[in-house]
Amino acid sequence: MLKYLKPYWIIALLAPILMLLEVVMDLLQPMLMARIIDLGVKTGDVGFILTSGYRMLGIALIGAAGGLGCVALSNIAAQNFAADLRLDIFKKVQSFSFCELDKFKTGSLITRLTNDVAQVQMVVAMMMRLMVRAPLLFLGGLTMAFVINARMALVLVATVPFLAIVIAVLIKKGFALFGLAQKKLDRVNIVLQENLAGVRVVKAFDRAEYEQERFNIAINDLMDNMIKVAKVSSFAMPVVMLIMNIGVIAVIWVGGIELSLGHMEIGEIMAFITYAGQILFSMAMMAMVLMFVSRGKASADRIIEVLDVEPQIKDITDEDMYIPKDNSVKFIDVSFGYGGENRTMALKNISFTVRPGETVAILGTTGSGKSSLINLIPRLYDAAKGMVLLGGTDVKKIPLKVLRDMIGMVLQETIIISGTIEDNIRFGKEEATAEQIIQAAKIAQVHDFIISLPDGYKTSLGQRGVNLSGGQKQRIDIARALVKKPAVLILDDSTSAVDSETEWNIHNAIKLQTKDITCIIVAQKIASIMDADNILLLHEGKIIAQGTHHYLLANSPVYLDIYGSQTEEEAS
């Protein structure tokens, strides 16, 4: 993942160099302090003390400038790293087919894009600061300690293995806990996302207590895991400090002996103790950083899991490009199922043809495979067997942009984006003119409603279109599909919230004003599709009958039963 730092390599390189400058200045200070004590204070040379003091002050200021520069540059590099990484994850998610979107829950993707990237960003910043400072301070301090007194330095070296063992144990325990913590956070975000998306249903059914309990379980599960993480982290510092203090005590004890023997001066002992503190502090710093690295590694694995996904639906190269000759649609012995190899087929051996400009309706009970069938045309999923042709060309051989530009699709779930009504309709075609937007709205039978609003097409819509009725949202969604003037229009039960008269007007307007469009309609009500050129009756993933309305009334008992039951309902 460090490839995301490559565009900012100059900044990423300068930050450690500035940190090196700070470390060098920090390592010079104890030696200067020793000289002040041994050569200035001991002899009463005030001039030497002042000169050395000014020198120490200058060195401190240079070190501070290096430290501040490192912090600023490392933050700039880490922020850019995180921004580019998030953008790539977002692009990757956008490239997912419905198969991959079925695999990753929305809450989990949100966690990976936000919290997981933040964890990795923190590690990247630390790598340019603490991961540079700690080793350099350790090696530099140890070198200076050996220069002053090798025997005392060996005392410090003896503490290093103990600290290394503690760090290794903490990393091993921490990695598993951090990975689990991110999964627990996924669960919290999933519950939260589901609750906020369906908050009106929750209130309508008075299920607030149930949802609170669900969230309580998820948040307590996360809390329990984070407490375990905190216990491991809290154990680290006292143990590291204990080993550090034992090391310092041993240094002072040996230093006292060396002083009494006349092998060292007081200033040298004070400098050595300072270096000992720097060495042991750098070890503690490394322990802390490696705990963060352990957490960052768990998050990085989750990010890479998304980035490494290969979408099942592959776009084709320019050399293989095929352009459909017309807007006919043809299914040849198509079968399809959700899941892996042992999947149950939702569609079985489907074959039918829609000629250019025809309207075909798909009718069937819930779960009969209606939505699965139409999702194969724009390649939201790919058929497991057989071929789907658009204009005589296999859709798998048509570039996705070309294919989806030819198709206007209104899904079952109506999605209203933030912005104005005009923005929502223009989402179907970014360069659409005001006249084209109005024309699409008129066909969708929503223009009169829009102009009745004080701000007309400039009316801002609330979150998810809360200030619109279900029928109004569906008609705006239909206008969005129509504004792109598609070759093929697919309506997936997109008028379920519209009254019968308006529904008939929509279908009639589409037929009259967009004569060249091939229209495929998934419907529940026969009354709205009686004029279709062909009606497919699906049952358990198979076409059990097809033909015009009158043909099916005369030849399909199932269709006749559906028509009879719907007619009785309308009459009652």
Give the topology.
Layout: H1 9-41, H2 46-95, H3 98-103, H4 106-128, H5 130-148, H6 150-197, H7 199-204, H8 208-260, H9 266-307, E1 329-337, E2 345-354, E3 359-364, H10 370-375, E4 385-390, E5 393-394, H11 400-406, E6 407-410, E7 419-420, H12 421-426, H13 434-443, H14 447-451, E8 460-461, H15 470-482, E9 488-492, H16 500-513, E10 518-523, E11 534-539, E12 542-547, H17 549-555, H18 557-571
Parallel strand pairs: 3-10, 3-11, 6-9, 9-10
Antiparallel strand pairs: 1-2, 1-4, 4-5, 7-8, 11-12
Helix pairs in contact: 1-2, 1-5, 1-9, 2-4, 4-5, 4-6, 4-9, 5-6, 5-9, 6-8, 6-9, 8-9, 13-15, 17-18
Name the descriptors:
ABC transporter transmembrane region fold; 2 domains; alpha/beta; four-stranded antiparallel sheet; 572 residues; 12 strands; 11% strand; Rossmann fold
Write a compact overview of the structure shown.
This protein has 572 residues and is of the alpha/beta class. 63% of the residues lie in helices and 11% in strands.
Polypeptide structure, described:
This protein is α/β, with parallel strands linked by helices. The chain has two domains: 2-307, ABC transporter type 1, transmembrane domain (ABC transporter transmembrane region fold), CATH 1.20.1560; 329-571, 3-Layer(aba) Sandwich (Rossmann fold). It has helices at residues 9-41, 46-95, 98-103, 106-128, 130-148, 150-197, 199-204, 208-260, 266-307, 370-375, 400-406, 421-426, 434-443, 447-451, 470-482, 500-513, 549-555, 557-571; strands spanning 329-337, 345-354, 359-364, 385-390, 393-394, 407-410, 419-420, 460-461, 488-492, 518-523, 534-539, 542-547. The strands form three sheets. The protein has a six-stranded mixed beta sheet. Strands 2-1-4-5 form a four-stranded antiparallel beta sheet, with no helix packed on it. The longest helix is centred in the middle third of the chain and has 53 residues, at 208-260. It is elongated.
